[in-house]
Amino acid sequence: GGELFFALKGERVDGHHFLQEVSQKGALAAVVSQDYRGESFGLHLIPVQDPLHALQDLAKTVLALSGTRVVAVTGSLGKTSTKEFTKHLLSTRYRVAASPGNSNSQVGVPLAILNDSVGDEEIFVIEMGMTLPGHIARLVQIAPPEVAVITNVALVHACSFASLEEIGWAKAEIFSHPHTRLGILNYDISNFKDLCQVGSAHKISFSTIYPYADYSIDPCQMILHANLEKSEIQLNPMPVPGKHNIHNLLAAISVARHFNISWEEINDAMPSIILPDRRLQFVNHRGIL
Predict the structure, then answer these.
(1) Could you tell me the pTM of the whole model?
(2) Cβ-count burial of 237 within 10 angstroms (0-12 exposed, 13-18 middle, 19+ buried)?
(3) Radius of gyration of the chain (CA)
(4) What is the distance between the alpha carbons of residues 114 and 122, in angstroms, rounded to a whole number?
(5) What is the maximum span of the chain, computed from C-alpha positions, in angstroms?
C-alpha cells in the first residue's frame, strides 16, 4: 500500500485501464496523462503531459539527490551477468545496489532506481538496454554513469540496424554523458577505435582473445595480464561454467579496479561468484542432468 502508480501507455495495454485495480491494492496516487477524463477511483490523480517522461524525470531527480555513484553496463550479450559480477566484486568494499534481473529498458531503468535502491548505496550498477538508436542516450541522461561498460557488440539487434558497426555506435551512446569518467569496452568490437572517440571519458579495453588489451586473460589458465599496471595475476578458477563468463568477469574486474578493489579482494571474492537466475544452471531430475 501507499504506492504511486504511473499509468503508462504501451503498444497493446494502457495503464489508465488499471486505476480501479491499483486503488483496490492500496495505491495512494496515480500519475496520468493530462487528457485522461475517467474516474479517479479514490486516487489522487497527478496529470502530466507524458507519464513515461514523468517517471524518468522522477528517477533522475531521486538518483541525483542520493549522490550514489553509477556504473552502467550495456552490450548485445552478457549485460546481466556482467552487472551481477560487478556488484559482487564491488560489494567487497562498498554498499552496492543493482538493477534487478534484466530491467534495462526505458521503463525498467527508472523503476529500478525508484524501487530497488534505498538511497544510502555508495554505488548503483545499472544495466542499460536498447532496441533503437537514442535509447541508451536517454538512459544515461536519467542515470549519468561515472563508469560505462560495453560488453560486446553482436547481431542480436539486426532487425533495427544495417550492420555491426551501427549497433556499436548505438551502444557507444553509453559514453556520451559529460560526467562519465571512464569507458570500458571489449577490444574485439569491429569498430573499437571509432567507439573510443565517443564522449570525453578516458577509455580502457579488455579481451579474452587479444593480449594487448589493457586487461586480458588466458581463459584456460586464468592468468590475467593487467597491461595498465604492468602486472600479471593468477586468478582463482571461475566457479561457474562458460568461457563467455570469463569475458564477463574480465569486464567486471576492469570496473572493480577503477574503484580500487585490490587483486587480493578480487581473488577472495571469486569462489562465491554465482550466475543470475536461469543461466547455465545444472538441474538434476530423476538421475538426468
Answers:
(1) 0.92
(2) exposed
(3) 21
(4) 16
(5) 66
